Amino acid sequence: MKSAEKKKIRGYGIGEVSIVMSVDAVERDAALIAAKAPKISQLDGLAAKEPFLTIENLRAGYGNMEILHDFSLRVAKGQSLCLIGPNGAGKSTVLHSIFGFTNIFSGKITVNGRDVTRLSSNEKLKNAGIAYILQDNSVFPDMTVEENLWMGGFLMSRPVESKLAAESVFDRYPRLAERRKQPARVLSGGERRLLEISRALVMNPDVLLVDEPSIGLEPRFIDMVFEILDELQFKENKTIIMVEQNAKKGLEFADIGYVLVSGQLAKAGRGSDLLEDPEVGRLFLGG
């Protein structure tokens, strides 16, 4: 134990330093899973053979650096999908690629049968119904809650449209309506997250890309955020693709789970099945 005390170990999961797996060990063991990568037919089956958003053999990254290698994805309308895996596996790069934040070297992204691979982020938001909900701290702190919502409609042709859309959000979430004239900086962590989600809803997207919805939140707010996402999926038929640091929470929520390793899809299954998978549990769920 003395040697462990002297050595700083990066790890996943919870527990004493002696029982937490090091990142290097996780990455090494996760690479073994990748040898059994799922076939496209399996991905189609998980999406009920009616995929709404598809990714085909995508190679993408930043600058000249390729992060994703022949990555494919299928998710149906009104389904949710959670991406998990070690740090640096390319999870956020998947979201960035769908929304137009990366260099696409090859491959194809479609939404409802439309090729959106080369569209700009603005075009994807305005014309393809894709919205990106960034990690925490993306609100404008000195703007009011109302003004933050108006910013969500910056691509609308007339300001009045943005204001009308904001009013519909206030009707949905009285918690925000009560604070509409207050600066966003006074909001609690959960309220800020609600504002970030609500701002993305102003354009009424079909697809929500959600990056780390629980990051920086207290447990009571985490539950609130996932309840909101659950409502958006099942009551409004939104398609949700998320990256979630709390893999257990993400898989409990999602219909489908994908495990990424080194920029490639290593494993796919129903979220409930991956929760029971001993390999996934040992590497990513602290089990």
What does this structure look like?
A hairpin with a 2-residue loop joins strand 1 and strand 2. The protein is 40% helix and 23% strand. It is built from 13 helices and 10 strands. The model is unreliable at 1-20 (pLDDT under 50). It starts with a helix and ends with a helix. It is an alpha/beta fold. The radius of gyration is 19 Å and the shape is globular. The strands form 2 sheets. The protein has a 6-stranded mixed β-sheet with strand order 6-7-8-3-9-10, sandwiched between helices. The protein has helices at residues 2-6, 23-33, 40-46, 91-99, 121-127, 145-151, 159-172, 174-177, 189-201, 219-236, 247-253, 271-276, 278-284; strands at residues 51-62, 65-76, 80-84, 103-111, 114-115, 130-133, 207-211, 239-243, 256-261, 264-270. The chain has a single domain, classed as Rossmann fold (3-Layer(aba) Sandwich).
Question: Which secondary structure elements does this structure contain, and how are they paired or packed?
Answer:
Blueprint lengths: L1 H5 L16 H11 L6 H7 L4 E12 L2 E12 L3 E5 L6 H9 L3 E9 L2 E2 L5 H7 L2 E4 L11 H7 L7 H14 L1 H4 L11 H13 L5 E5 L7 H18 L2 E5 L3 H7 L2 E6 L2 E7 H6 L1 H7 L3
Parallel strand pairs: 3-8, 3-9, 6-7, 7-8
Antiparallel strand pairs: 1-2, 1-4, 4-5, 9-10
Helix pairs in contact: 6-7, 6-9, 9-10
Into which percent range does the helicity of residues fall? 40-55%
* Tally of contiguous helical segments: 13
Report the sheet-strand fraction. Answer: 15-25%
CATH architecture: 3-Layer(aba) Sandwich
What is the CATH superfamily? P-loop containing nucleotide triphosphate hydrolases
**Spans with pLDDT under 50 lasting ≥5 residues?**
1-20
Structural class given helices, strands, pairing? alpha/beta
Strand order of the biggest β-sheet? 6-7-8-3-9-10
CATH topology assignment: Rossmann fold
The CATH class designation is Alpha Beta
Shape: globular
Give the total of beta strands.
Answer: 10
Rounded to the nearest angstrom, the distance between the terminal CA atoms is 21 Å
Radius of gyration computed on alpha carbons: 19 Å
Element order, helices and strands?
Answer: HHHEEEHEEHEHHHHEHEHEEHH
- Number of structural units classed as domains: 1
* Main sheet specs: 6 strands, mixed
Average pLDDT score: 87
